[in-house]
């Protein structure tokens, strides 16, 4: 399927979660077998070209795409979780949200020193979670140079923020506005 066909599978829900936001809902994309497979194929092609040796996905929708790509490429999948979700010793990073802060955690034993890890997620908005994920992975010893997204919201500046963190960005599709 062509990128414009995949884009047409993403549902837009106005005024969610608050008035003025155009929520880009990927459940309609993942609910379309051919569209989901084509999206995973696109991501897998980008990950392969990057030379990644493992894939990290951020909770929660990054698990959907990241794990599918990792399985397709027979690569390890590294889940980056919200605080308190992992039953083992973890490393963590705090990061700022629009209103407040949050914490991401991971098992540091899941990464080998110098391992090339690509980040995969469904959507890039402001880049805060993605930059925090890159920082966390690097803290664990990974080389993080690439991040791949299904959707980019370029007006929110996330790609620039990630590039400033030393991470190259590619997205399958873009939606203007929030």
UniProtKB/TrEMBL annotation:
Taxonomy, superkingdom: Bacteria
Keywords: Cytoplasm, Glycosyltransferase, Purine salvage, Transferase
E.C. no: 2.4.2.7
A GO MF label: adenine phosphoribosyltransferase activity
Domain Phosphoribosyltransferase span(s) in chain numbering: 43-148
Catalytic reaction list: AMP + diphosphate = 5-phospho-alpha-D-ribose 1-diphosphate + adenine
A UniProt-annotated Pfam family: Pribosyltran
Enzyme class: transferase
Entry-linked InterPro entries: Ade_phspho_trans, PRTase-like, PRTase_dom, UPRTase/APRTase
Pathway: Purine metabolism; AMP biosynthesis via salvage pathway; AMP from adenine: step 1/1
Subcellular location: Cytoplasm
Family: Belongs to the purine/pyrimidine phosphoribosyltransferase family.
Subunit architecture: Homodimer.
PANTHER family: ADENINE PHOSPHORIBOSYLTRANSFERASE
Role summary: Catalyzes a salvage reaction resulting in the formation of AMP, that is energically less costly than de novo synthesis.
Protein name, entry field: Adenine phosphoribosyltransferase
């Amino acid at each position: 399927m062509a990128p414009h066909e995949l884009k047409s599978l993403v549902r837009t829900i106005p005024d969610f979660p608050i008035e003025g936001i155009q929520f880009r809902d990927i459940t309609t994309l993942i609910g379309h077998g051919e569209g989901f497979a084509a999206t995973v194929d696109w991501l897998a092609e980008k990950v392969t070209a990057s030379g990644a040796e493992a894939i990290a996905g951020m909770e929660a929708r990054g698990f959907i795409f990241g794990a599918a790509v990792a399985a397709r490429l027979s690569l390890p999948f590294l889940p980056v979780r919200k605080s308190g979700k992992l039953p083992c010793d973890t490393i963590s990073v705090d990061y700022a949200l629009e209103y407040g802060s949050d914490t991401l955690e991971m098992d540091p034993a899941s990464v080998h020193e110098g391992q090339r890890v690509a980040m995969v997620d469904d959507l890039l908005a402001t880049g805060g979670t993605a930059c925090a994920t890159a920082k966390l992975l690097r803290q664990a010893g990974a080389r993080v140079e690439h991040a791949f997204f299904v959707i980019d919201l370029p007006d929110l500046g996330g790609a620039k923020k990630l590039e400033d963190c030393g991470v190259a960005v590619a997205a399958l599709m873009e939606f203007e506005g929030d």
